[in-house]
Amino acid sequence: MMRIFLLPILFLLAGCSIKNYEINEPKIIVIKSSQLKYADLGYIRSSGTALKIDLYEMGNLAKSIEINNMICVDDGCMLKSSFNEKYLNENYPSDILENVILGREIYNGKNLKKLSDGFVQDIKDEYVDIHYEVKNKEIKFKDRKNAILMKISSTR
């Protein structure tokens, strides 16, 4: 009987287990939404299948966000769609946070305009009004309709 209860718990914990990250970069990170407010130094750590964002305030770790098949935060692990619903916007695609943090196309490349040093996407519908820009190794995401802002820039 005890094994039946342990299996789901072990599965959830495995989603947030310790990873060996190949990339470990300091960045200036700004995240503003109704549930997340952060502007300071952070570290983006990634490997082929895992991504972790460590957010610091005045030199102290304030929050960690780990993205694998689920998103793990201080509140525990949840589906990506559940994270969006709680912290960002329920209408966003489930992979939007990961794609923005890594500077990849969002919404399957909808309205993508290539630039010599990156790209721009403008996505507007009844749920969102997004301007997303990746250029010169800087990332800017702004959703005017939902008051969400994410900026990631190099510390150098």
What does this structure look like?
This protein has 156 residues and is α+β, with helices and mostly antiparallel strands. It has a single domain (2-154), classed as outer membrane lipoprotein receptor (LolB), chain A, CATH 2.50.20. The protein contains three helices and eleven strands. It has an eleven-stranded antiparallel sheet. The longest helix has 13 residues, at 2-14. It is globular. It starts with a helix and ends with a strand. The model is unreliable at 1-7 and 9-17 (pLDDT under 50).
Tally of alpha and pi helices: 3
Q: What's the count of strands?
A: 11
Low-confidence stretches: 1-7, 9-17
CATH hierarchy class name: Mainly Beta
Helix-residue proportion: 10-25%
- Give the N-to-C terminal Cα separation: 55 Å
Provide the CATH architecture.
Clam
**Cα-atom radius of gyration:** 16 Å
What class do helices, strands and sheet pairing give? alpha+beta
Mean pLDDT: 87
- Counted up, domains total 1
Q: Strands of the largest sheet, in order across it?
A: 6-5-4-3-2-1-11-10-9-8-7
Key words describing this protein structure:
alpha+beta; 11 strands; disordered N terminus; 3 helices; 46% strand; 156 residues; 18% helix; eleven-stranded antiparallel beta sheet; outer membrane lipoprotein receptor (LolB), chain A
